[in-house]
Design goal:
The complex is a heterodimer of chains A (538) and B (305). Chain A is of the alpha+beta class. In chain A, 31% of the residues lie in helices and 22% in strands. Chain A contains 16 helices and 21 strands. Chain A has helices at residues 6-30, 58-64, 113-124, 162-166, 174-180, 182-187, 232-240, 252-259, 310-319, 322-328, 359-368, 389-402, 414-423, 438-445, 466-476, 481-497, and strands spanning 39-43, 72-74, 79-81, 84-91, 94-99, 142-147, 150-154, 195-201, 205-210, 223-228, 246-247, 264-279, 285-286, 295-296, 335-336, 375-382, 405-412, 428-434, 501-514, 517-518, 533-534. In chain A, the strands form 5 sheets. In chain A, strands 1, 8, 9, 10, 11, 12, 15, 16, 17, 18 and 19 form an 11-stranded mixed sheet that branches. In chain A, strands 4-5-7-6 form a 4-stranded antiparallel sheet, with helices on one face. In chain A, strands 2-3 form a two-stranded antiparallel sheet. In chain A, a hairpin with a 2-residue loop joins strand 4 (84-91) and strand 5. The longest helix of chain A has 25 residues, at 6-30. Chain A is globular and about 75 Å long. Mean pLDDT of chain A is 91; it is low at 1-35. With 305 residues, chain B is mainly α. Chain B has a single domain, classed as MetI-like fold. Chain B has 15 helices and no strands. Chain B has helices at residues 2-28, 33-38, 44-53, 60-72, 86-92, 94-121, 126-140, 143-157, 169-199, 202-209, 214-242, 246-251, 257-266, 270-298, 300-304. The two termini of chain B are 12 Å apart. The relative contact order of chain B is 0.13. The mean pLDDT of chain B is 87. Classes of the chains: A alpha+beta (538), B mainly alpha (305).
């Protein structure tokens, strides 16, 4: 045989011709998509459901909050009137909520006290066992619709934070749900919010259109498309190529690149997600892991548990250089934290300062505690839950080794890591805490663990301080805001002073937008189209 | 034929049972879905209540028996994460996956056959070496990297094509093209080596010596006999594409089964993973059946024997 035969040669020629046509076809394809595109917001994930009481997860709620309202609205930095115009505790156990009048759902049905009451009951699980908003309704013992515009809530015990709870519960069209059923409501939601539902192609897009009958300020953007784009780099690429207008969750590395791009803007804000180290306070010595057993598994068998000593916990705090971790591992994204709460939250203690990075002091404290030569330990971490959590685990271990604590990082997938923590399989771990509600934070993270009372679930290291427990009980039922603020500040002072846990830094939310998009990023990581305006158009 | 089909049906039942058991056990040892559903902020009461509601407080054998009983009634469970029937979630994504897999296979098969024939015919020549080294790149390049590079080049630099999502055919080109790359490379090598085997055989020499046109010799006599291994491999490739191109679908935000299954595994959404596994098993069973039947069209010996 000598070279390709004739028919083959012509086949090859045909192929070459075709390969010339392909790029031309691509050019043609790109042309019509310009201009006609809807304003597009790209999240990382899709909504789990469009039933606003069906799933408590940031992206899902952020998407739903385009279509739904709550009685109390979570504004950018404070609580604001939503479907309620005012709320007041008339006695320690009774709240009166005044409702906005003339509000209609997207299907035309009216909003009134009866609808508000039934919505709260549905969140509690009445007729909707799958509600994931149950824990926001613990303060609600009984509800009464006094008249169309007034709701009375009986809390049973003094409950100073009912308005904070109400900010989490969406008001739903009870009549429509009863007719259509829960499943159809989740597929084709109807709310009172600024946007009405148009279309949902799962994992591809959700289309929304401004609701002309909206009670509040009409949004600037009339048509919005929300898209889930799971891969960070692809989301960033969509912003650069001009296909999306707003991109949620830009990675810190991509943010650096985007900041050099003149066509787009990068918006940053501190979030309520706080990364911290937790310690085993209760097991006296190291040993192989056995559920409920006496050995702390991150330490050599039989050796005493150094973390029972405050000096050692303080040594850890002095050994970890948080600003340096933010600069390197987090590529400049994040802010050092002093407590497990974001600065704008109720109860935040402004006077607390982090223990400074001081390795010499750390070594001295270790020596004073009886560990002049340090000790070996395991640091447990997730590697797919928080931004750069795996590398962070390695970096912190490296810093601990410099003062003599021979830390071995143990990063694992979240599906394995968290159950291991709940079983007690750790000595020191790195995790995140993400709420601005101070009461739930204290009862979950710092209250003496008691499964029956439902407190201390995240207090896996079993920190226990009677004074703190008493403060939690007192503050949780103190109706006077100033007194309650002072109690929580005191509680923060105690737990941080004892290094019950070591707060490291607050994660940042990074949003990429086109140059003309104006938007204030939120510390709860929502993106709401109704809060977006465009430069040169209002 | 009827006994053949009956036998296949019984085999399929065994496959379904096996798949469900393996997936069930694998998921139950992978971690705790309740923790993932509630996050760090859920309380003990929430955890206990949810575990009970999902039936996860029972022993493993009881859970499995309950699953089988419900499955026999056609109830394969409700997604933990989405709150809708798991089978509905999986089936909703079949069209998108079918479209992507079909387009990718079409590109790969239509290009691979002529290119493989060209390579075999000009063995050692320029095109042969060109396709061989090119296919090596296609086989070795990781799909994630291929996807991101395609997005960068065609979506960001030239802006010819959308970077993600599903819509008109312009949305299909990049994901289907990058998915086809590996298959194209594989198939070119398969066709080439098959052709080389066959072209040296006596009957081809006989056909040539009879004075048949080269076109007839190559395409009618030689190519047809290389198709059996090709169809087998192509069928398996089609099966794996239909199960969901996990990486490609994720990179291009393609709303198919691969993306659903990855999300569901990460969230330990047991019912969805189970439904996906059963649907995938069904796809493989059907494709293997189709492959077996198609042998008889290509090779008469299979038909008679």
């Amino acid at each position: 045989m000598t070279g390709p035969t004739r028919p083959l040669r012509s086949a090859a020629r045909a192929l070459l011709r075709w390969s010339g046509i392909l790029p031309a076809a691509l050019l043609l394809a790109a042309a019509p998509s310009e201009g006609a595109r809807k304003f597009t917001i790209a999240f990382q994930g899709d909504a789990a459901t469009l039933d606003p009481q069906g799933r408590n997860e940031t992206t899902t709620i952020s998407i739903q909050m385009h279509m739904f309202d709550t009685l109390v609205f979570r504004g950018i930095d404070k609580l604001e009137p939503g479907l309620a115009t005012s709320w007041k505790a008339v006695s320690p156990t009774k709240w009166v909520v005044k409702l906005r009048q003339g509000v209609r759902f997207h299907d035309g049905s009216p909003f009134n006290a009866e609808v508000a009451k039934e919505s709260l009951l549905r969140a509690q699980g009445k007729g909707f066992a799958k509600s994931q908003m149950k824990h926001f309704t613990k303060g609600i013992k009984a509800i009464r619709a006094v008249d169309d515009a007034t709701l009375e809530v009986d809390t049973g015990v003094p409950w100073p934070t009912l308005h904070e709870d109400l900010a989490n519960i969406a008001i739903v069209p009870i009549g429509y749900i009863q007719k259509a059923g829960d499943a159809n409501f989740a597929r084709k939601p109807v709310g009172t919010g600024p946007y009405r539902f148009v279309e949902w192609v799962k994992d591809d897009h959700i289309d929304l259109a401004a609701f002309p009958g909206y009670w509040g300020k009409a949004p600037t953007l009339k048509e919005v498309r929300i898209r889930p784009v799971p891969v960070d780099a692809a989301r960033t690429a969509g912003l650069i190529s001009g296909e999306t207008d707003v991109v949620w969750g830009v990675s810190p590395v991509d943010a650096r690149t985007l900041e050099k791009n003149p066509g787009v803007k990068v918006l940053r804000t501190i979030t309520q997600r706080n990364i911290y180290l937790a310690f085993d306070h209760w097991r006296k010595a190291g040993g192989a892991f056995k559920k409920g057993g006496p050995g702390s598994p991150g330490l050599p068998a039989g050796k005493p548990n150094p973390f029972q000593n405050l000096k050692v916990r303080r040594a850890v705090a002095h050994a970890v250089n948080v600003p340096e971790l933010i600069r390197t591992v987090m590529h400049g994204s994040g802010a050092p934290a002093t407590q497990l709460a974001p600065p704008p939250s109720f109860g935040y203690n402004k006077r607390l300062a982090p223990l400074p990075f001081d390795p010499a002091r750390a070594k001295k404290l270790l020596a004073e505690a009886g560990f002049p030569a340090g000790f070996p330990m395991r640091l447990d971490c997730s590697n797919d839950r928080y931004i750069n959590d795996g590398p962070m685990c390695e970096a912190i271990s490296g810093m601990l080794r410099k003062v003599g604590i021979e830390a071995t990082p143990n990063p694992r997938t979240k599906a394995v890591f968290f159950p291991a923590l709940d079983n007690g399989d750790f000595t020191v771990y790195q995790a995140g805490w993400g709420t601005d509600a101070v009461g739930p934070t204290f009862s979950a993270v710092f209250h003496t663990q008691d499964a029956k009372k439902g407190v201390g679930r995240i207090n896996r290291g079993r920190y226990s301080n009677k004074e703190v427990d008493a403060l939690i009980a007192k503050a949780s039922s103190e109706m006077d805001d100033a007194k309650r603020q002072a109690m929580w500040e005191k509680a923060w002072e105690i737990v941080i002073g004892e290094v019950a846990v070591l707060p490291l830094y607050q994660q940042e939310a990074i949003i990429g937008v086109q140059k003309n998009v104006q938007l204030t990023p939120r510390f709860n990581e929502w993106i709401l189209a109704q809060e977006i305006t465009l430069a040169g158009r209002n | 034929m009827p006994t053949f089909l009956l036998k296949r049906l019984l085999q399929s039942l065994a496959v379904f049972l096996g798949v469900s058991l393996v997936i069930f056990l694998m998921l139950r040892t992978a971690g705790d879905p309740v923790q993932i559903l509630l996050g760090e902020e859920g309380t003990q009461h929430d955890v206990a209540r949810l575990r009970e509601a999902l039936g996860l407080d029972r022993s493993l054998p009881v859970q499995y028996v309950l699953f089988l009983r419900n499955a026999l009634r056609g109830d394969l469970g409700v997604s933990y994460h989405h709150g809708v029937p798991a089978m509905e979630l999986v089936l909703e994504r079949v069209p998108a996956t079918l479209e992507l897999a079909g387009a990718a296979m079409l590109i790969a098969v239509v290009l691979a056959i002529p290119l493989g024939v060209i390579a075999a015919n000009g063995r050692g020549g320029f095109w042969d070496r060109f396709f061989l080294s090119g296919s090596l790149v296609g086989i070795s390049a990781p799909p994630f990297w291929v996807g991101i590079v395609c997005i960068l080049v065609f979506g960001v630099v030239f802006r010819w094509l959308p970077t993600s999502g599903r819509g008109g055919w312009e949305h299909l080109i990049l994901p289907a093209g990058s998915l086809a790359l590996y298959r194209l490379a594989l198939f070119i090598r398969l066709v080439r080596s098959g052709m080389l085997d066959v072209l040296g055989q006596d009957y081809v020499r006989t056909a040539r010596s009879k004075g048949l046109a080269e076109r007839v010799v190559v395409f009618k006599h030689a190519l047809k006999n290389t198709l059996i291994p090709f169809i087998t491999i192509a069928g398996l490739q089609m099966g794996s594409l239909l199960a969901g191109a996990v990486v490609t679908e994720r990179v291009f935000a393609w709303p198919g089964m691969g993306r659903l299954i990855l999300d569901s595994i990460q969230k330990l959404d047991y019912p969805v993973v189970m439904c996906w596994a059963l649907v995938t098993a069904a796809i493989f069973i059907l494709i293997n059946l189709a492959v077996d039947v198609s042998y008889s069209f290509v090779d008469p010996r299979v038909r008679s024997g």
